[in-house]
Specification:
Layout: H1 2-81
């Protein structure tokens, strides 16, 4: 009687382990898909980051040129005002 009860418990544990293995397989597959999607997203994001860097650099250059032009124009106006 005890032997049958032990075998039943072992059978239940074996069934539970089988279910856990199925869940683990599903989760592993899901993780592989997630890694692929993440890699693709990171590659797309790299292009966007390059674009943002370029646009930022162009904006800084434009601001520098505008400031420098304003400085030169101010000097020319001062020179014109004093008649030299």
């Amino acid at each position: 009687m005890d032997e049958k009860r032990i075998l039943d418990k072992l059978e239940q544990l074996d069934n539970k382990l089988g279910k856990i293995e199925l869940i683990l397989d599903r989760n592993t597959y899901s993780l592989e898909i997630h890694e692929k999607r993440t890699t693709i997203s990171e590659q797309r994001l790299a292009h966007i980051e390059q674009h943002v860097y370029l646009v930022t650099a162009m904006g800084k250059l434009a601001l520098f040129l505008a400031g420098f032009s304003g400085f030169i124009l101010t000097l020319l106006e001062i020179k014109k005002a004093f008649g030299r």
